[in-house]
Design a protein that fits this description.
single chain, mainly alpha, about 80% helix
Amino acid sequence: MKNPVQILKILDEQVRSYSRLYELLKGEKEAIVSFDPLQVERLAKEKDSLVLQLRLLEEERKRLVDEFFGDGNGGRSISDLHTATGDKRFLDLRSRLLSLLQGIGELNEVNRLLIERASLHLRASSAFLQAFDIKASPSHAVSREA
């Protein structure tokens, strides 16, 4: 195969999927800050599904690139595709992917820190309540609004 159209389609789909992941991570950050565990759980499920889709897209991209170059060496980059084809769309997609991946990495780190802090706060609160021998029973639910 010497036609890069399928590779461009896969790369474009990866950009859309990574954009969706970025948006999910922003939503997760808001849910963590607002202490909405149900929303965090829902977003985690969506992220898991999206990550699986991204893995499949990456495998397909690698297969198409290997087929394009006629070898099974792998490791060919998007820049290699641009060099081979002269198509500037590859550079644009590469730039967008790099930007998205950097943003995703940063948001993921922020969310990790927020979750760690929330966990620390919950452990400290639990220890405080245990110091007064206060036990939560399933029949007495406590509301944050109360």
